[in-house]
Amino acid sequence: MTMEDLIGGLPAYAKDMKLNYSSLVKQNTELTAQQLWGTVVASAIATRNAELTAAAIAEAEAAGLTPQALDAVKAATAIMGMNNIYYRFQHLTTNEKYATLPARLRMNALRGHGVDAVDFELWCLVVSAVNACGKCVDSHERVLREKGAAEELINAAIRVTSVIHSIGVVLDSEKAAPTPVAALT
């Protein structure tokens, strides 16, 4: 199934998602193609919706996302899947002792990804936003700005992420409790 099929099949209550996908992804002018499609894929993977992830990867590859960039996106989502849990725990606990203990988590993917550092940081940021890890969001946003990324670029990626995440929520909702056909007309 393609992204267009998924978007076209969204129920009437998700019309805003269709419109936002069209304006923020299909007509995007703020992100490079690699940043955009990496963000779409990273966001889809972070939703944990297999159908959306498969469609996003296929669309990204058709749009020219290279195998190396796709691997970097997957590495960013994997490493943030681990880090977001660890650092979100540190953020949420009132026991300050945990912040003084070593993480002892291997994070080689942060350096050996083979794509532009801004792009990789952007994908780490968007996954951290989906996973609601304040420490990681703050850290990656700061690194992006230090590397010269403007707030407008970061905001554009977060807008795309919010729409992709919302589409995943709608797809999961419809799988669990489909909207009756009469409600769609």
Automatic annotation (TrEMBL):
Domain Carboxymuconolactone decarboxylase-like: start-end pairs: 98-170
Catalytic activity: N(6)-[(R)-dihydrolipoyl]-L-lysyl-[lipoyl-carrier protein] + a hydroperoxide = N(6)-[(R)-lipoyl]-L-lysyl-[lipoyl-carrier protein] + an alcohol + H2O
One Pfam family it belongs to: CMD
InterPro entries membership: AhpD, AhpD-like, AhpD_core, CMD-like
UniProt-annotated catalytic positions: 133 (proton donor), 136 (cysteine sulfenic acid (-soh) intermediate)
GO annotation terms (biological process): cell redox homeostasis; response to oxidative stress
Keywords assigned: Antioxidant, Disulfide bond, Oxidoreductase, Peroxidase, Redox-active center
Entry EC number(s): 1.11.1.28
Family membership: Belongs to the AhpD family.
Function, as annotated: Antioxidant protein with alkyl hydroperoxidase activity. Required for the reduction of the AhpC active site cysteine residues and for the regeneration of the AhpC enzyme activity.
PANTHER family with a match to the protein in the record: ALKYL HYDROPEROXIDE REDUCTASE AHPD (PTHR33930:SF7)
Name assigned to this protein: Alkyl hydroperoxide reductase AhpD
Organism for this UniProt entry: Edaphobacter modestus
Gene of this entry: ahpD
